[in-house]
Design goal:
This protein has 440 residues and is an alpha/beta fold. It folds into 3 domains: 30 residues; 225 residues, TIM Barrel; 168 residues, no CATH class. The chain is 33% helix and 20% strand. The chain has 11 helices and 16 strands. The strands form 4 sheets. A 6-stranded mixed sheet has the order 14-5-10-7-8-15, covered by helices on one side. Strand 7 and strand 8 form a beta hairpin. Helix 4 packs across helix 6, helix 5 runs parallel beside helix 8 and helix 7 packs across helix 8. The two termini are 52 Å apart. This is Berberine/berberine-like domain-containing protein. Keywords: Signal.
């Protein structure tokens, strides 16, 4: 009897495995949407043959994958033709439509970058609200007992890096003037650390609407001198995509980095996408049907000091004191891109180490709040379109990944910065999981 029972059970198990085997095989060749790996599909520019693009995507579907569509214009191709074949051009629109149609035809998931390249810039007229701002400074050295009487100099943008350089044009708005008592720190071979003894706020001594100042430097410690620092708010004027030299309209002139510390920065990108990438209701309906995540890559952008319109007022409202006397102490590598660069190759620190630490902690807390406004605006836009929003939160900037990731529908990391450090991935995924976001 036991033998009969065992044989019956074995037969039923074999029957179950046999019946499910075709389904298991099918799930490998055509996985359900939520389990498909995604390949990043790079479009060099809109001169690409639409039939080739369609065929590429069909091959992706044939191996059981989905895709992330990225108009990767900076992959070494020729900007001279981007006046006609640039992002958002009349040539780009039919390609994006073909991408959506092929995703629908193949029944595969489609993610897409909100902008060209890493997805953090937008074609726009320079100086438009919503483009990236930063705080820059100029220096005037004044010996103890000497009087400065004159006009404070304007600033120049920081030296070029491997990214697009910060172009030198546009208005500069003076928002703060401080005097710092400094002496060069001889403890480093490079000599790029400057020690600050005292910081004096001179902003109210500058005539309103001008850069005129009269000030006599007080006595200083032996070996020390004074510097007057004028702090200016201005656009970074940094491109994310080049334009041709003969561009006649802003649509032909590449893309500019947007403000990542305000909702305005997200809105200018999202509005361009609505107006130029999916201009017809039929386009938007199709994207809502086949699209999954609107996406932004790591933040590849530069700055002297990360800033946005009204940051000083937000700082005072949140912390109860003025940011002006903190400004020199924020010029440290830890606040630079990827913590490796400092504007004008000079880093400042205070003899009062606690003061410097408090200034930086408070600055980053407000910067984090402003960054959250940016990603929340993107997320709200995406959800209003029947989509979700994903990015690489806080990556490369002095921001909190753990506070940012729960705000996203699917936070993304990458091995380039995380290497094989398991804890780094936990910092990204843990808060998102606590927020009931299962996908990271």
């Amino acid at each position: 009897m036991r033998l009969t029972l065992c044989l019956s059970l074995a037969a039923s198990l074999c029957h179950g495995v046999s019946a499910s085997w075709p389904r298991l095989l099918n799930n490998f060749t055509a996985p359900p949407l939520e389990f498909r790996p995604k390949l990043r599909y790079w479009l060099p520019d809109a001169i690409a043959d639409i039939d080739v693009v369609r065929d590429d995507l069909r091959q992706i579907a044939a191996v059981g994958a989905g895709f992330e569509f990225l108009a990767y214009y900076e992959a070494g191709h020729d900007p001279s033709r981007w006046g006609k074949f640039g992002y958002g051009s009349d040539s780009f629109l039919p390609i994006f439509r073909a991408v959506m149609e092929t995703a629908e035809e193949q029944g595969i998931p489609m993610d897409f970058a909100i902008g060209a390249n890493q997805g953090q810039g937008v074609p726009s007229k320079p100086g438009t609200e919503g483009l990236a701002l930063h705080l820059t400074y100029s220096n005037v050295t004044v010996a103890p007992g000497q009087t400065f009487k004159g006009t404070l100099p304007l600033t120049t943008n920081k030296r070029p890096s491997f990214m697009h350089h910060l172009e030198e044009f546009g208005e500069q708005t003076l928002i703060a003037v401080v005097a710092i008592e400094v002496r060069q720190d001889d403890s480093t071979a490079e000599g790029d650390y400057t020690e600050i003894d005292r910081i004096i706020d001179l902003t109210d001594k500058v005539a309103h609407g001008s850069r005129s100042l009269t000030w006599t430097a007080p006595k200083a410690a032996p070996g020390a001198t004074w510097r007057i620092m004028g702090w200016y708010e201005r656009f970074t004027n940094q491109r994310s995509i080049d334009g041709p030299s003969d561009a006649k309209t802003y649509l032909q002139n590449g893309s500019w980095i947007v403000d990542h510390f305000s909702a305005a920065g997200a809105r200018i990108m999202d509005q361009f996408f609505d107006d130029h990438i999916v201009p017809e209701q039929s386009d938007r309906d199709l994207l809502a049907s086949v699209g999954k995540y609107a996406w932004e890559d790591s933040m590849e952008m530069d700055s002297t000091l990360w800033w946005t319109r009204g940051f000083d007022k937000d700082f005072k409202r949140a912390l109860g004191y003025d940011i002006r006397t903190c400004l020199p102490l924020l010029l440290i590598k830890e606040n630079g891109w990827a913590q490796v660069r400092i504007a004008y190759d000079e880093e400042f620190y205070s003899k009062n180490m606690t003061r410097g630490e408090e200034c930086n902690k408070d600055y980053r807390s407000v910067l984090q709040t402003k960054y959250e406004e940016y990603i929340q605006a993107h997320a709200e836009w995406a959800r209003s379109k029947g989509l979700k929003f994903s990015n690489q939160p806080a990556y490369n900037l002095p921001l909190s990944m753990t506070e940012s990731s729960p705000l996203l529908d699917a936070p993304e990391g990458e091995s380039l910065g995380f290497f094989e450090r398991i804890d780094a991935y936990k910092y990204l995924s843990g808060p998102a999981h606590f927020k009931k976001h299962p996908k990271v």
